[in-house]
Amino acid sequence: MYMDWTSAENPRFMETSNKLYQVGASSPNPRLQRLNTWRKQLQITSLVMNPPDLADIVRIFTHAYPKSVLTEPKMENFIRLLIQTFNVDLRRFRSIFNHPQFQSNRSAAYRSGVDEFVGEFRGVLRAMTTENVVSLIRGSSDSAQHSHRLIATYRRANHGYSHDMRHEVRSSLVVNLLCEAWTKQADKMRTIMETLLSSDMEMAAALGWFFEAEGHTHIVTNQYFNIYPMTETWVGTSKTCLSQAEHAQPMEIGPRAMRLYDSTSDPSTTCDPNAYYVPMQVNNPLFDSFLAGKDFGAAFQMTRSGTHSFKTTYLKPLRKWLEASCGKPPSGFHFVFLIPTGKKIQIRIPDTAVTRMFRYYTLPLASQSLGLQNPESVVKENGMGGMIGEVEPEDDEYVEDGETVDDDGDIVVDWI
Q1: pTM for the full model?
Q2: Domain count, the chain
Q3: 270, part of any domain
Q4: Distance, CA of 2 to CA of 25 (rounded, Å)
Q5: For the segment 64-82, what is each residue's pLDDT rounded down to a tens digit?
Q6: Of the candidates 254, 277, 281, 257, which has an alpha carbon nearest to the alpha carbon of residue 267?
Q7: Is 202 inside any structural domain?
Q8: How close are the terminal C-alpha atoms of the chain, in Å?
């Protein structure tokens, strides 16, 4: 017998002896405190299903939307983008596929979904205290109406026949929204960060999310930094290999408030000289944030790795956003790689007109997130490996006259 357990009360027929073999389905909600009672009193065995994986979701939406005209690679790329943004949320995915503009403008449908989610989540955070958020992250809250916006639920690997649930922050967008809400309140943000860092996160990608959150918090709560210029070493005729120098120089940014923005919006919407801007969209592999002021503009890329790809396709919109706020500084813009203290980094950057408009630096951060799990082991733990991969931009998206796209997706100048 199969039934849907939507109530926290025991089904009445279970209180008497019977020969039925019951299989009950229930939402993976941390408020389901009766589950422990059922285990003890009724000796039930609980089984926890992980969400469908990337291949399953691609098959689901390919079958459900045969008129989407997406090729298999494009469907996989788009589903991967949705997972990166919302985690696995089939209802929200369906609403995006059903958007009136999906066929003609898939990006607009996606942006609409992101805007709706961000609006909902900001409203939720306004109604919650720091303690509420901490309880949800730890899986001990009874706030059913908010839980699924903030957390995702997975199977905890253990021995025996019965499974346990573990709850994780849904995505990097959720982490950024938490930072946006509380980075200006140092004590509350410290509580949130300590909870995230001590939580039972098993997804390898989350290690990167936490490092980015540490970076955002560090930038917003400080007004003055020591950054390290990177030295140039030529490789071939068109690319530069950068490694960090030894001597620091000061960078003063003044008081800032973190704000999420639509990366497809007009540059005139991101001109607040007191803002620190972080894109809502997650498919931005070049930079994680930027800020600007009078005659000064800087972009930040948080990376725990010793190397990092440099997709120049994203430099042009970045330049436009910076120029809208600060014009064209005589000394150029700053591009800052925020890295763990003691880490060395090398970046291969194409030599183009737009890359020459930036000066490149590193900003060391004493990170707590590096002490978390081994990324290789956590991928095997929850079977989510491969779902959170890089989403490739469309070819020629930012190419202008006089330029071409090379095999690596970089824009190079056609020299004459």
Answers
A1: 0.78
A2: 3
A3: yes
A4: 8
A5: 998 888 899 999 999 999 9
A6: 277
A7: no
A8: 75
Q: How many whole angstroms from its chain centre is CA 233?
A: 32
Residues 231 and 334 in one domain: yes
Total residues belonging to the chain: 416
Do residue 277 and residue 365 come from a single domain?
yes
User: pLDDT tens for residues 287-332?
Assistant: 999 999 888 899 999 988 777 778 788 888 888 899 988 888 777 8
As given in the structure block, the two tokens for residue 222 are: 């400080």
Give me the DSSP letters along 45-87: ----PPPP-HHHHHHHHHHH-GGG---HHHHHHHHHHHHHHHS
Q: Do 58 and 20 fall within a single domain?
A: no
Task: Quote the tokens at residue 83.
Answer: 């997972």
- Mark whether 311 and 241 lie in a shared domain: yes
Find all residues with CB under 8 Å of 245, minimum gap 6, and list them: 228, 229, 230, 231
SS3 416: coil
Residues 312, 318, 322: CA angle, nearest 5 degrees: 145
362 occurs within a structural domain: yes
What phi and psi values does residue 229 have, to the nearest 5 degrees? -60, 145
Neighbour tally for 324: CB within 10 Å: 16
What stretches of 170-271 adopt beta strand conformation (E)? 224-235, 239-244, 249-252, 257-261
Q: Please give the residue range of the domain that contains residue 311.
A: 210-387
Closest residue by Cα to residue 253 from 339, 317, 336: 336
Enter the tokens of residue 295. 């005659």
Contact 82, 94 (CB under 8 A): no
Q: Are residues 226 and 361 in the same domain?
A: yes
| 322, 377: one domain | yes
Residue 48 lies in a domain: no
Task: Give ∠ CA 195-118-27 in degrees, rounded to 5.
Answer: 65
Q: Are residues 274 and 322 in the same domain?
A: yes
- The answer to whether 227 touches 248, Cβ cutoff 8 Å, is yes
